[in-house]
Amino acid sequence: MKQSRIWNVIMLFLATTSLFSCAQEQSKVYVESSLHDGWQFKQASKNEWKEAIVPGVVHMDLMRHGDIEDPFYRSNEKKVQWIEEEDWEYKTSFDVSEDLMNKDRIEIEFEGLDTYADVVINGIKVLSANNMFVRWNKDVKQYLKLGENEMKITFRSPINEVMDQYESTGFEYPADNDAHEKKLSVFTRKAPYHYGWDWGIRLVTSGIYRPITLKAWDEAKLVDVWVRQNHKEDRVELQHTIEVESFEDGQVQFVINSQDNSFESIQKTFDLKKGLNTLDLSFDIIDPELWWPNGFGEPHLYPVHYQLMSDNKILDELDRRIGLRTFEVINEPDSIGESFYMKVNGHPVFMKGTNYIPQDNLLPRVDSSRYEHLMNTAVASNMNMIRLWGGGIYENDYFYELADEKGLLLWQDFMFACTMYPGDEAFLENVKNEAVDNIRRLRNHPSLALWCGNNEIQMGWENWGWQESRNYSVQDSVLLYDYYTKLFKELLPQMVEEHDPGRFYYPSSPISNWGELEDFKYGDNHYWGVWWGKKPFESFREYIPRFMSEFGFQSFPEMRTIKKFATEEDWNIDSDVMKTHQKSSIGNITIKEYMDMYYREPKDFPSFVYLSQILQAEGMRMAFEAQRGAKPFCMGTLYWQLNDCWPVASWSGMDYYGNWKAMQYFVRDAFTPVLTTMEEKNGQLEVKIISDELADRSADLKLELYDFKGNQISTHSQKVEIPSNSSEVYWHKDVSDFLKGQDKKSVVLVAEVISEGKVLTKNTHYFVPVKDLKLKKSSSDIQIEQVDGGYDVTISSETLIKNLYLEIEGKGFWSDNYFDVVPGQLSKIRLETDKQLKSEDISSFSVVDTF
Ligand code: BMA
């Protein structure tokens, strides 16, 4: 840092000619290493140390040693509950070299400690953690010594830790999803779903669940680079706010290199004072390539490398990928009530997506391939938004990086869901650290769309009878709502305002309740009239809000998944095992009641399981179509829920193992940029086309009515001009005219929109519920042809097949499944697999096989 002015000038010259980064031998000052080796663990009250894997949690270590059985298997959940009441110790040793010891600063960073953890280095307590959602950094140089160092971390039971607090509170918090009779979870800043949920096993974990890094440096370090965007006509100004911590007064250079040569290198010299320095540096990107969400264009990212330099040394450096976009939430009174829609780069965008829950109760075993599969599923399903729901976790960096890359906008809840929370000073201080840490960690991601304070707490407080059912006194109620106000209406918005100004925040999703139709004119809504309200699926057509941020229906995971946790004797919805794997209080009976409305009684358990998926898929399709069709009144549909955290009956479209349920295919088809829908209204058949595209388009609409033997009864085709971002009725006709006297029970209407030789959307319509269809047993003809990475599969049939499900032994991904086969038409799909197959190896099943 002590450097001459001349050197500065040379550096600047080199930088502006883009030679800077390659022309010199640069030594690196900052070093880091992970501390994941040599760990052992034990129950605090016992003596035997056993090998542990870090990052990990205690359940994983116990399982590896055979000390507990797999909690996901059968009803083992019950057998492992003792773990939450124990304290656990982890220890390791690590070497510190002379080089490291000579550094000005040595810090240890824990990206995640779950949860009440005391860290002891060489016998001295250096850190006490109490929040699994924050990164803990500690200057540890003074505690380290040359050569071998000992580190021990004690995790205190998250149950015992808060018991006194619970006992002295004087009332019960309304945390219905917490599976323990004592609702302790609210006192601890730990993933709420760990304590159980209406789709979740209870596994209250402890452990070093994210990486540990030892970091050392001299002179100065980049604490943060915050990039804000100012979009102008032909350019985007990037305002950098750079935080540098320095050990002395001096000078540094801050260098910005484009990794893809999209702008010239930039360098500026700054004077530093000892301590924390905030530096500002702005520059423009001319003719920017914007970041667009999936379905609207490329999610373009500018790869940028930042360096903090002194003399010829790199003090610190970091990589970023910057996506240039504007994002607005328009939530304001309008002529209807209160709008809730989003604009990306100035365009109103209909949000299509889902709600995300963590992918496992044992978080460290979610590897990168599982994150990738999940995100690829979202992209393949034509989604543009994912809501990180408030009962889970703030995800790891990889999640947000993938979302940036794939054009998925993220609705980020703070981690509070479905209960009131404490609001005493200590709790607020803890949440403040958590909010600041996560806002600063996530605010640079182009995928980050908005902040929401919590899930359903305002709604619960006003409508779910918490105050009566818990017998709260007036004082209790006043206190609890005062806590609520402090947390969600004061602290969190203040933190967003301070650390991420300009990003939309609102205290609680949803804004409006689902009971009264009138409320659907206001803001976002979680419509649970279907499922919790037991209304038929058709009510999705009536109860359409301005933005649907939750709604859903359960199904079972496929039999292959069930076989992994249940033996044949458990294959019954009333068995102990199947009840363990169904956490909704009204779960299995509700699936059955809806099934009785739309389908004939399934003959056995596998038929029930299959039909549960068809039921969910068809029911939800009605919702997707109605909500998209109601654009621009309604401008978003996020279904509950994308995924599972263990194998269970749930509202998910994809099971714990990543298998697509029927609904996932239906989501994909219902979320295509151009969609056609058919609905009968007062004896009229109405055909709509919905477009999310940015441009107008000309196309052909084709309608064909077939009987179940494949004879064409009626056809209609017309040219259509489809305006961008629209939903319009293009054709309607008297149903009986169109049916030409055919039996309603044995015809299917197929609609297609074709443009530039491509089928943009294809949909089918039946004129009676499936249970009344005259389906005939038939065998489908399946031909396969080997191609790179799998097989092309061609299916045909002489009679209509409703929801054909194809399966092979072992691993394979079907490009389509659970689809209808119309006689006379070939269905061509792709099976990705590395297995060698004959067509006989493919088994098939359809609705007609269920009764
Ligand atoms: C929603 C969610 C979850 C729950 C789901 C199904 O309201 O926010 O709390 O799992 O309903 O009941």
UniProtKB/TrEMBL annotation:
- Which regions form coiled coils? none
Asked if the Swiss-Prot or TrEMBL record annotates the protein with the keyword Electron transport, the reply is no
Catalyzed chemical reaction(s): Hydrolysis of terminal, non-reducing beta-D-mannose residues in beta-D-mannosides
What is the residue range of the signal peptide feature?
1-23
Looking at its record, which EC class is this enzyme? hydrolase
Residues annotated as domain Glycoside hydrolase family 2 immunoglobulin-like beta-sandwich = 221-325
Family, as annotated: Belongs to the glycosyl hydrolase 2 family. Beta-mannosidase B subfamily.
Can you name this protein? Beta-mannosidase B
What are the residue boundaries of the Mannosidase Ig/CBM-like domain, all occurrences included? 683-772
Q: Give one GO biological process term.
A: carbohydrate metabolic process
| Alphabetic keyword roster | Glycoprotein, Glycosidase, Hydrolase, Lysosome, Secreted, Signal
